[in-house]
Write a structure and sequence with these properties.
Number of helices of chain B: 5
Distance between the termini of chain A: 52 Å
Oligomer: heterodimer
Number of domains of chain A: 2
Order of helices and strands of chain B: HHHHH
Radius of gyration of chain A: 17 Å
CATH architecture of the largest domain in chain A: Orthogonal Bundle
Strand content of chain B: under 5%
Low-confidence stretches of chain A: 77-81
Number of helices of chain A: 9
Helix content of chain B: over 70%
Number of strands of chain B: 0
Shape of chain A: globular
CATH topology of the largest domain in chain A: Rna Polymerase Sigma Factor, Chain: A
Order of helices and strands of chain A: HHHHHHHHH
Largest sheet of chain A: none
Structural class of chain A: mainly alpha
Helix content of chain A: over 70%
Distance between the termini of chain B: 34 Å
Radius of gyration of chain B: 25 Å
CATH class of the largest domain in chain A: Mainly Alpha
CATH superfamily of the largest domain in chain A: RNA polymerase sigma factor, region 2, helix turn helix motif
Chain lengths: 163, 197
C-alpha cells in the first residue's frame, strides 16, 4: 500500500465513528446511510491531497462529510426493502440494553424533524464542539451560531415536552 | 426525555462506536474504488445515452429538414430540433455544476446555499422541460410522418383527431404533477435560503 493510502486508511479508521454519526443523522434508511457513508469516504479520498493542514483534520472531515450529506439529500433512494435507520444504529452498536436502544430511537426521531442546517448544528453541538469551532465549520458567525442553537434547543424542548 | 439527556445518549453512543471499529484497510480502499466505478457507470447510463439519443435525432432532423415543405411543418421541425439540443445541454450543464462543487473548499452554509440555488434552477428547467415535452410530442408526429412517409398530418389529419385529445390529457396530468413537485420543493428551498442569506 502506498504511503498516501496508508495515511488515508489510518485516518478513516480513526474517525470511523464520526463518519457513521454524520451519515446516520442525515438519512432515514439503511441503504441511504451506507451509500452516504461510502460517498463521504470517496469525497474525503478525492480531497485528501488538497488538505493542507490549514485547519484541524477533524474540522476538514466534518466539513467534507456534512457537505457531502447535503448533496446526497437531493437523490434520496426509496427502496421497499430498505431497513429503517434505527435498526442500522442498533446493529452497528450491538447494544444489548433495550432502554438505551429506545432512547437512541427517540433521539434520532427528534433530530430527524430538524431541517438540514439545524441537523448540522445540533450534530456539532452534540459532538461537544465549541461555538467557535461550529462557526469555523458552518461559516456562520459565532453569535449567529449561538442564536441558532438556542432556537434549536427551544424547538427540541417543544418536541420533547410533547412526548 | 430531557434536553440534557440527548447529550448523554450521544456521548454513550460515541463511546460504544469507538469500541466497535469495523472497517478494514481493504474495505476502505474498496469503498473509494467502488464509488468511482458507480459514478462512472451512472454518468454513462443517464447522461451520455440520453444526450446522444437527443443529438442523433436532432442531426437526423437537420439532414431531412428540406422535406418539411410548409411553414407550419418547418416551424414544428425547428421547435423539435431546438428541444432536442437545448434541453439536454441545460440539464447536463446544471447536473455537472452540482457534481462539480468542491466540497472541501466551501463551508456548510455556503454549500447549502449553492445546492438550494442549483436545485431551484434544475427544477425550473425540469418544469419547462415538462411543458416543452408535451409540445414536442405534439409536433413530433407530424414531423416524423412527413419525413418518413411524406404525409402531411395537418392536412390529412385523421390521426391528429385522436392524438391531440390524448396529448391534452397528458399535458394536464404532467402539468399538475410537475407544478406540485416544483412548488413543494422550491418552497422549502426558498425558506432555507431566506434564512441563510
Amino acid at each position: 500500500m502506498e504511503q498516501k493510502e496508508t495515511a488515508f486508511v489510518a485516518l478513516i479508521k480513526e474517525h470511523e465513528g464520526l463518519l457513521f454519526k454524520v451519515s446516520t443523522i442525515y438519512t432515514d434508511h439503511k441503504m441511504e446511510q451506507q451509500d452516504l457513508f461510502q460517498e463521504i469516504v470517496y469525497q474525503l479520498w478525492k480531497s485528501f491531497d488538497s488538505f493542507k493542514n490549514q485547519s484541524k483534520i477533524s474540522t476538514w472531515m466534518y466539513r467534507v462529510a456534512m457537505n457531502t450529506a447535503i448533496g446526497q439529500l437531493k437523490r434520496k433512494k426509496r427502496s421497499p426493502i430498505s431497513e429503517s435507520i434505527e435498526k442500522v444504529v442498533l446493529k452497528q452498536m450491538e447494544s444489548q440494553d433495550p432502554v438505551f436502544e429506545e432512547r437512541l430511537k427517540l433521539m434520532y426521531e427528534h433530530i430527524g424533524k430538524l431541517n438540514v442546517l439545524e441537523k448540522g448544528l445540533i450534530l456539532l453541538l452534540l459532538e461537544g464542539k465549541s461555538y467557535q469551532e461550529i462557526a469555523a465549520i458552518s461559516g456562520l458567525t459565532t453569535s449567529n451560531v449561538g442564536t441558532r442553537i438556542s432556537r434549536i434547543k427551544q424547538k427540541l424542548k417543544g418536541q420533547l415536552n410533547k412526548k | 426525555m430531557e434536553l440534557d439527556e440527548l447529550q448523554t445518549i450521544w456521548q454513550n453512543m460515541s463511546t460504544e462506536l469507538e469500541q466497535q471499529k469495523k472497517l478494514t484497510n481493504t474495505l476502505i480502499m474498496e469503498m473509494t474504488q467502488q464509488k468511482y466505478k458507480n459514478k462512472f457507470s451512472k454518468l454513462k447510463t443517464y447522461e451520455t445515452i440520453g444526450g446522444v439519443i437527443c443529438f442523433a435525432a436532432a442531426i437526423y432532423l437537420i439532414f431531412n429538414f428540406g422535406k418539411l415543405d410548409t411553414w407550419y411543418l418547418s416551424l414544428s421541425g425547428i421547435f423539435a430540433i431546438a428541444f432536442l439540443v437545448i434541453l439536454p445541454i441545460l440539464t447536463l450543464g446544471t447536473l455537472n455544476s452540482i457534481s462539480g462543487l468542491k466540497l472541501q473548499e466551501k463551508n456548510y452554509s455556503e454549500t447549502i446555499i449553492s445546492y438550494q440555488k442549483q436545485k431551484k434552477r434544475l427544477l425550473i428547467i425540469q418544469q419547462a422541460g415538462i411543458f416543452c415535452s408535451f409540445l414536442f410530442m405534439l409536433v413530433s408526429l407530424p414531423v416524423a410522418s412527413k419525413i418518413l412517409k411524406d404525409k402531411d398530418l395537418f392536412v390529412d389529419g385523421q390521426n391528429l383527431l385522436w392524438y391531440i385529445p390524448i396529448m391534452t390529457v397528458f399535458l394536464l396530468f404532467f402539468a399538475r404533477w410537475g407544478y406540485g413537485c416544483y412548488k413543494s420543493i422550491t418552497t422549502s428551498a426558498e425558506n432555507l435560503l431566506t434564512e441563510l442569506e
